[in-house]
Specification:
The protein has 4 helices and 6 strands; from the N terminus they run E-H-E-E-H-H-E-E-E-H. The chain has 108 residues and is α+β, with helices and mostly antiparallel strands. Strands 1-6-3-2 form a 4-stranded mixed β-sheet. The protein has a two-stranded antiparallel sheet with strand order 4-5. The longest helix is centred in the N-terminal third of the chain and has 17 residues. It is globular.
Length: 108
């Protein structure tokens, strides 16, 4: 975690993207998001938003979905994963990656 990051922020995070079937563009987006904290010397946590550029460009051929929002997982079994998975003695937390429109991301 960089200096100034929330003291309660988890040090180890995995991304979860719920979809009906995996697509290469979803996987590419998750890889991009996974590298973001390292590349930008920053961090991602619950409640953060991440626009796709400035101004935000739509993801995956959509005309509206241009921002990602990060939440705790909604699937019950995924919510217990931090108590079951650890790396180097630290729990691995999970972030649900939710696509939004800029309008929704700004107003929330």
């Amino acid at each position: 975690l960089p200096r100034g990051a929330d003291k309660g922020a988890p040090r180890r995070v995995e991304l979860i993207f719920y979809c009906s079937e995996p697509r290469d563009e979803y996987i590419s987006t998750l890889r991009w998001v996974a590298h973001f904290p390292h590349d930008s010397k920053s961090w991602l946590g619950h409640g953060h938003t991440m626009p796709n550029g400035n101004p935000p460009a739509p993801f995956w051929g959509s005309i509206e979905l241009d921002t990602l929002f990060f939440l705790p997982p909604i699937v019950k079994k995924d919510q217990t994963l931090p108590s079951e998975l650890n790396l180097g003695g630290e729990p691995v937390h999970f972030l649900w990656v939710v696509p939004l429109t800029t309008r929704n991301a700004i107003s929330s």
